[in-house]
Amino acid sequence: MSSRKSRMTRTLQPLFGDSDQFVHLVENYFGFLEKYGFRRSPQADHIGGALWSIVYEGNSVRIDIYYDVRDKFSGVSFIRKRDGRFLDLLRLVPNTPISESLTLTTHLSPGESELARWAEYLKRYGRLILADSEEAFERLPSQPKPIGLIENAQPHHALDCPTFHQLVEHYFAFLHLHGFERRPDLEHLDDPSCTCVFAGKHIGIMIYLSQPTQDWWHALGSPRTADIYVGVNVVRLRDYRQRDLGRYFVGMEGFESELPVPESASPVEREVARWAELLKRYGQRLLADREDSWEVS
């Protein structure tokens, strides 16, 4: 039990030692934005508290590279300055398995690896954003909405961590039948973002809620809408590798992400229910919790 705990804990460690390291790495990997006319805007940065954000300003588009300290999650978002319209870089990335879409050097730390990957995604799929035009948001290619993404959410759609944990326990109770144990000692209980962890012998399942802080909501101005994301990561415990569950399923014969969910439920509950049903329907290999369960059949 102790070895399993230490392995799982390692996957939940902070991605960056401190904010100075985060700023340095962001400027290193996203410095190419200046070639497209974007300017570093330190006065607009937000460093401190639960959310760190580094800003590059264009004439029409603002690019934020952010790190959620509590949820241990980084990302890139775009804001159209004219009307505050928000878009996450994740929407531009085709639904191909992450392991197949980019090849990065393996010596990078987890945090640096994430930033390197986001920067490469932006170069590869963000051509219209990098053009910094007013029409960029309308001209973006249509991509299937990532599983778990709640677009244009409002502050009242956010959930506190105890409520989120209750929903996860309800919908993912079937994991106990497959020998997975709930591990509250590995979870983050700080609102607004939080995780819920189940660990087996070889495979770990981490269900997480990523949503804006109150400071972020207020910074958005009016209308206050932003994306909320409910996600599931699969962890191979012997070497700490993680994989997004949705990308694990991509390419499986007969895979269908649009499953029936309780329409009367809140947006977050609907996505929790969707993930649970997907895991039950397509995740038998993972639920078997074998050494080879990680490999996609």
Descriptive report:
With 297 residues, the chain is of the alpha+beta class. It has 2 domains: 121 residues; 141 residues, no CATH class. It is 31% helix and 22% strand. The protein contains 11 helices and 11 strands. Strands 6, 7, 8, 9, 10 and 11 form a 6-stranded antiparallel β-sheet that branches. Strands 1-2-3-4-5 form a 5-stranded antiparallel β-sheet, with helices on one face. Strand 3 and strand 4 form a beta hairpin. The longest helix is centred in the middle third of the chain and has 16 residues.
What is this structure's SSE topology?
Elements: H1 2-11, H2 19-30, E1 39-40, E2 51-57, E3 61-68, E4 73-80, E5 85-88, H3 98-101, H4 110-125, H5 127-130, H6 136-139, E6 149-153, H7 161-171, E7 181-182, E8 194-199, E9 203-210, H8 214-219, E10 226-236, E11 241-244, H9 245-249, H10 267-282, H11 284-287
Antiparallel strand pairs: 1-2, 2-3, 3-4, 4-5, 6-10, 7-8, 8-9, 9-10, 10-11
